[in-house]
Protein: Acetate--CoA ligase
Organism: Pontibacter flavimaris
Amino acid sequence: MTNYQLKSYEEYQEAYQRSVEDPEGFWGEIADTFTWRKKWDRVLEWNFEEPNVKWFQGGKMNITENCLDRHLKTRGNKLALIWEPNDPKERFIRYTYRELHEKVCQFANVLKKNGAKKGDRICIYMPMIPELAIAVLACARIGAVHSVVFAGFSALSMADRINDAQCNMVLTSDGLNRGAKQIPVKRVVDEALENCPSVERVIVVERLGWAVNMVEGRDVWFHEEVKGVSKDCPAEEMDAEDMLFILYTSGSTGKPKGVVHTCGGYMVYAQYSFLNVFQYQESDIYWCTADIGWVTGHTYLLYGPLLSGATTLMFEGVPTYPDNGRFWQVCDKFGVTIFYTAPTAIRSLMAGDIDDVLSYSLDSLKVLGSVGEPINEEAWHWYHTHVGKERCPVVDTWWQTETGGIMISTIAGVTPMKPGHAALPLPGIQPILVDSEGNEITENGVEGYLCMKFPWPGMIRTTYGDHERARLSYFSTYKDLYFTGDGAKRDENGLYRIIGRVDDVINVSGHRFGTAEIEEAINHNEHVVESAVVGYPHDVKGQGIYAFVIIKDKPEKEEYLRAEIIETVVEKIGKIARPDKIQIVSGLPKTRSGKIMRRILRKVAEGDTSNLGDTSTLLDPDVVDEIKAGAL
Ligand code: PRX
């Protein structure tokens, strides 16, 4: 184990202080433990104005050499990946580091054989099958930039992302399993590609054995392409600041943006945060339940654990299939020691029968993690008591697609833990709270907007194809600060509690959507004149989607119209963005300048209409009474 794993609170404090006083020395020493083909010329160059952030410039490396090759000597026969299928009756798959290395090299050669090269953008739209993990690493191996699109997004969403990044290749599968359902993935790809002229090649992995449409000259089967292909593929040499991947995420305006992460800094931060937060040990069996389509899957299912030489478990299914005990059954089956999941999954399982948990021993568990949204205290205690048997620390990890890795979190058993609190920043992370003018609030026992005042290696570098957008989204709200979009409290002891987004972003089951993005989708429905979307507290999802919609003519049956509007959103974005409630209204509360007063709509959606504040500045104050009366 590398010696930068913090073992006590004192060590944490020392490391933290060092990281602030001498960030370059601090990160340089950590980076030194990785495999570089050439050492960097300079640890850090930065300003948050442009922004321009460069870590380990001039350093040459390949992240897959660090994830795979460097472990072969000492961990060649150790399990790298365990894959558990959706159906518990189907056999699981295991790859040692040596086998995974071969699989990745072979896939990389298939990519090359099909014309892929360094710098190309490759869209991966695949379910949680081993080939997804292998495909991601294969892209990194040859220096192609992966852009993974979660396989629950619609064809239109995929097409937008492919076009934005100008991908020339798509990696996909015939179909996918999700609980009792099977979904024709390739058909979605075909639909998307009707509008994606940049794509020249589609490689299809067989999962269900379905007959699918194969376009001559464009589509090939992976199992045919791989025949006779070498298992040896030297890694492409990358500069530390070359792009590693793009991952699209929603913001408060416009279409989702392509968050860009680069090779060197991301690598260093992924391993450092993984080793520390979870206090990973060589014999651990680590399971992160996130899909690789999200950043959590990138950093803490794939890169972080593999960089650390860990055994990482990948699960194809859902927590509720074939029953509510599935997570716990898998924990027992493989002796999982570190388990990392989302509050929404915990809340959905909490609602079920407690015997679904109690009938499994869960003796192997040592550390539990939570990610993606605030974890309410009830869920925290349930997780801690029934899953962790009060002996496993629960680490509430706060971070974002843009941060690349965990920023604020309890370090298991090392730094303080408090329900509902992410607690303290990791070494190297300098959070501050500011007021609405951007003035730093230095005391404890306060609330403010969460910003970062110093760069860290895993941070976003740009938004693909539009650097100005990155500047405007993250670096222009407060001068010389990275603005997270979150509000946070700092308690008397300096522990952080993340309250949630302060912009027009809704967090549904840990997934981000811009209200504008959902409104735009709803407005595509031919019956809709205008809409306004807000989030409201939802027992399982954290936040639900509440849409207020003005329609052209009164329909015969409102239910049909609602179903149609939902269908439009599913088509434009995907099932994950379905509105939970749709209220038909004749007007929206707007100011005289035409701005929708979402504050009022949020209150109505929350069911709290007792104090709507000042409504006198509204263009038509009467509309508020109607909205209140019709609230769902
Ligand atoms: O609002 C915060 C919330 O999720 C947002 C980031 O979403 P995304 O980029 O999709 O990444 C999710 C996985 C890292 C944040 O701005 N969030 C994430 N983790 C937490 C959280 N809110 C509270 N507590 C957390 N632990």
